[in-house]
Structure to design on (293 residues):
């Protein structure tokens, strides 16, 4: 191969090398951007409500990792000196079921009329069978023997319809729906299975709204006492209401807790709830900027 041919080969290799470098430089930049993006996403995935200001509702359904603790050396279960709790007999049982031998276990003599003595007792603690109990409310007309006129009785204010459910069932429905956080459909299903009543979801919602109206003065009084306290804790977490993101705001002291939901998380919601604007004590929170406003 001549010298000119060698130079031509070198020039061609140099041209190809420059072309490859020109192609690799943009790929290198794309790779660096992709690596930065991956690191950012990994950092986000590693954050949860325990390591950042994210609400617990954003943690998802994954089980949080267990924290490793050094062994304490204690056996599982109750420790020495623990008082413990166990079932105990009641002083006045509502029902007593006697168990007498029908006849003598030795000779077979009939013992039905022979008095016996109690030698041992056992108690069974249970709930009564839950079923609807119909209570009729008739009003009477009474003719006065003096003036010969007729007087009519009147229904109680709580009896306002020809047929209706009573306050105990209403209270149980509201407790299951609001206290135990059962959805309206499952509340209706539970009461149908337990009590044999057929409720609509609209009925459960109306009872819950009625309970909220009756409790409004109590809720406002709790807010007033928290606002007047010397120390309170505040926080907020995301919740879904009819599929839309809202925020559950909590204000509490060691003895009082105020919960309410709002479409906003920050200062706007806190001002409308009205506890923080009236509060002049020390606040414990996660340093969300809205608390410092």
């Amino acid at each position: 191969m001549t010298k000119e041919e060698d130079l031509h080969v070198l020039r061609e290799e140099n041209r190809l090398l420059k072309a490859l470098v020109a192609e690799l430089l943009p790929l290198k930049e794309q790779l660096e951007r992709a690596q930065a993006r991956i690191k950012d996403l990994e950092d986000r995935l590693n954050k949860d409500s325990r390591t950042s200001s994210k609400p617990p509702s954003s943690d998802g359904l994954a089980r949080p990792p267990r924290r490793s603790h050094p062994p304490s050396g204690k056996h599982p279960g109750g420790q020495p000196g623990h008082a413990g709790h166990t079932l105990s007999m009641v002083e006045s049982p509502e029902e007593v079921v006697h168990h007498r031998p029908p006849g003598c276990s030795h000779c077979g003599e009939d013992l039905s009329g022979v008095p016996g003595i109690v030698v041992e007792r056992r108690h069974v603690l249970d709930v009564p069978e839950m079923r609807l109990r119909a209570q009729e409310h008739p009003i009477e007309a009474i003719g006065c023997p003096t003036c010969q006129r007729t007087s009519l009785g009147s229904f109680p204010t709580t009896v306002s319809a020809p047929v209706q459910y009573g306050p105990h069932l209403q209270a149980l429905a509201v407790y299951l729906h609001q206290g135990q956080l059962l959805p309206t459909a499952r509340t209706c299903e539970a009461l149908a299975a337990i009590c044999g009543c057929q409720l609509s979801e609209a009925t459960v919602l109306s009872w819950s709204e009625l309970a909220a109206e009756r409790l409004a003065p109590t809720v406002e009084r709790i807010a007033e006492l928290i606002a007047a306290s010397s120390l309170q804790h505040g926080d907020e977490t995301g919740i879904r209401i009819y599929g839309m993101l809202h925020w559950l705001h909590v204000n509490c002291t060691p003895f009082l807790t105020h919960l309410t939901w709002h479409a906003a998380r920050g200062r706007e919601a806190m001002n409308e709830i009205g506890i923080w604007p009236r509060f002049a004590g020390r606040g414990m929170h996660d340093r969300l900027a809205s608390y410092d406003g």
Observations:
- Residues 3-45 form the longest helix (43 residues).
